[in-house]
């Protein structure tokens, strides 16, 4: 079965921070809006993250991400869990510092209700992360 997009209108999302608390211009909604002109822009800090709570269990298989070059992460740690459980590490990804869509991240398939993507080691001196697109693909169970 081919992988399908897992983020839907009922998927609850949270982010670590938003640049200058300007949610309208840089908020989490821009991760999934499909627009080339909008983005989630974190505030400065050593570790930024995005958490997704899916409305029903999913099996994640791929992660697609598009950073702004110069504001990307050298290391992305994926953690996940079922409802009521603690997050456990699924895998580590090493993105390029590029504005190109990076779609080659294969994820060890794991059934989960919650996914956290932690962006460590930003390429920006102040630790900011800028993401134009975040796609989580897999199978709804």
UniProtKB/TrEMBL annotation:
The keyword Nucleus applies. It is found in: Nucleus. The keyword Nucleus applies. Residues 1-66 form the F5/8 type C domain. Its main location: nucleus. Keywords: Nucleus. One of its GO terms (cellular component) is nucleus. Belongs to the NR2C2AP family. This is Nuclear receptor 2C2-associated protein.
């Amino acid at each position: 079965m081919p992988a399908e997009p897992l983020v839907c209108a009922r998927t609850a999302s949270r982010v670590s921070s938003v640049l200058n608390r300007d949610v309208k211009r840089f908020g989490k909604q821009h991760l999934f809006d499909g627009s080339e002109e909008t983005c989630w822009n974190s505030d400065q800090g050593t570790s930024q993250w995005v958490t997704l709570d899916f409305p029903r269990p999913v099996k994640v298989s791929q992660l697609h991400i598009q950073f702004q070059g110069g504001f990307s992460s050298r290391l992305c740690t994926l953690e996940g869990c079922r409802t009521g459980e603690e997050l456990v590490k699924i895998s580590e990804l090493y993105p390029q510092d590029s504005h190109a869509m990076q779609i080659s991240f294969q994820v060890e398939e794991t059934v989960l209700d919650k996914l956290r993507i932690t962006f460590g080691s930003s390429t920006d001196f102040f630790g900011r992360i800028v993401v134009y697109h975040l796609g989580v693909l897999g199978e709804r169970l």
